[in-house]
Specification:
Elements: H1 2-19, E1 25-28, H2 30-36, H3 38-75, H4 81-135, E2 139-142, H5 157-164
Parallel strand pairs: 1-2
Length: 166
């Protein structure tokens, strides 16, 4: 009976060591990888150009409104109260139009940004999955995250860049 207990204890120790496999954890410089991707650089350039074009449209409209406001200010004393009231309503309408243009530009930019970054994120995630499987990583954590307290494990940045051909 004593031999059976010792044998059972030995078997349990071997089984527990076999199932308590060490997990491989690696860190990944996500920002560094994204910065190196040509697709991201191209998307950023396109988004900047889009934002600049929208901003130029808004500025043009705002400048025209400002010029009209200056004109109305100088002519106000020569106009009737009804004319000045109509001009004031027109200026309010222009202000509302400019605000709506800004809101629409922001929504359009967000939609364009989402559409531009979606394939880049998918490509990065696919590369991370391939690199993790190829190198046996159980977890890969973002090296730039403030929530990581310890990041002394292997760095998967090189493996992911290799998968992306960078």
């Amino acid at each position: 009976m004593k031999k059976l207990s010792v044998l059972f204890a030995a078997v349990m120790m071997v089984v527990s060591f076999g199932t308590a496999k060490a997990q491989k954890i690696a860190t990944l410089d996500v920002v560094g990888v994204l910065t190196a991707m040509p697709e991201k650089k191209k998307a950023d350039a396109e988004l900047t150009a889009f934002a600049d074009a929208k901003q130029a449209e808004i500025k043009k409209k705002a400048d025209a409104a400002q010029a009209k406001f200056q004109q109305y200010q100088t002519e106000a004393s020569k106009k009737t109260a009804d004319e000045n009231k109509a001009r004031e309503a027109e200026m309010e309408k222009l202000g509302t139009e400019i605000k709506q243009m800004q809101e629409k530009a922001q929504k359009d930019f967000q939609a364009k940004q989402d559409a531009a970054y979606e394939p880049i994120e998918k490509k990065l995630n696919d590369a991370v999955n391939k690199a993790a499987k190829a190198n046996g990583y159980d977890y890969i954590m973002d090296a730039n995250s403030t929530s990581i307290v310890y990041k002394g494990g292997p760095d998967a940045t090189a493996a992911v860049k290799k998968e992306l051909g960078l």
